[in-house]
Amino acid sequence: MIRINLLSRKKRTAEAPQKTQVWLLVALGVVLLEVVVLVIVHGIKVDELRAQERKNREISSQIEQSKRAVEKHDEVKQKLAQLRAREEAIAKLESARSGPTAVLVELSRILTSGRGPSVEPSRLVQIRRDDPQSAFNPNWDTRRLWLTTFKEEKRRMHVDGLARDGEDVSEFARRLSLSDYFSGVKLLPAHRQQDATTKVDLVQFSLEAEVKY
């Protein structure tokens, strides 16, 4: 007698749809998970894109500012050149107005008894220490020398004068060399002559120097 287990077949037949449903749910979950991941990744990429676009706009703005600055560079340079030229012209006018006056005042100081050249005290002390002969004589009688002509052109001075003897001329030249207002002092050939009125022998001299102002 043959027996067929119909209950077992029915059980297997009922379990089949259940397994199919489980696989469908799993597949649906995977798909949903992928969608969620894609949404998250998409949001991150969108934020990165916006951040990059913001940086690009900032860079573009900086480039435009640099272009505008470069465009105005020549104009700014030209204005600066004009300002410098104006300042130099004003400085030259001020120097031309005050310089010759200062030189004449310095000459007057040099040729005044009890006075002397304008020189830094520390420099004068050092000169007297190193070479006393290079320092000026504070007791020199300035009435022993006088100037007859004075010319100054392009900061080059030329003077003529008379002195009682050669030592007076040397003292005058020494004072000019020490002064802060003169440099490159050069004595030109001198000669003796007799004053027509007093019959006193004098030294006629000429001297050149650069003036500083």
Describe, in short, the structure shown:
With 213 residues, the chain is of the alpha+beta class.
List the SSEs and their pairings.
Layout: H1 6-110, H2 121-130, E1 145-153, E2 156-163, H3 166-178, E3 182-187, E4 191-194, E5 201-211
Antiparallel strand pairs: 1-2, 2-5, 3-5, 4-5
Question: Descriptors for this entry?
Answer:
Gyrase A, domain 2; 213 residues; alpha+beta; five-stranded antiparallel β-sheet; 3 helices; single chain
Characterise the protein shown here.
The structure is a single chain. The chain is α+β, with helices and mostly antiparallel strands. The chain has a domain at 106-211: General secretion pathway protein M, EpsM (Gyrase A, domain 2), CATH 3.30.1360. Helix content is 60%, strand content 18%. Strands 1, 2, 3, 4 and 5 form a 5-stranded antiparallel sheet that branches. A hairpin with a 6-residue loop joins strand 4 and strand 5 (201-211). The chain is rod-shaped, with a radius of gyration of 51 Å. The N and C termini lie far apart (144 Å). The mean pLDDT is 82.
End-to-end Cα distance, whole Å, is 144 Å
Count of discrete alpha- or pi-helical segments spanning 4 or more residues: 3
Q: How many strands appear in the DSSP assignment?
A: 5
Query: Strand content of the residues, in percent?
Result: 15-25%
State the low-pLDDT regions, or none: none
Structural class: alpha+beta
Radius of gyration equals 51 Å
Helix content: 55-70%
Q: What is the overall silhouette?
A: rod-shaped
One letter per element, helices H and strands E, the order comes to: HHEEHEEE
CATH 4th-level superfamily of the domain at 106-211: General secretion pathway protein M, EpsM
Largest sheet: 5 strands, antiparallel
**Under the CATH scheme, which architecture of the domain at 106-211 would be assigned?**
2-Layer Sandwich
CATH class category label of the domain at 106-211: Alpha Beta
CATH topology of the domain at 106-211: Gyrase A, domain 2
Arithmetic mean of pLDDT: 82
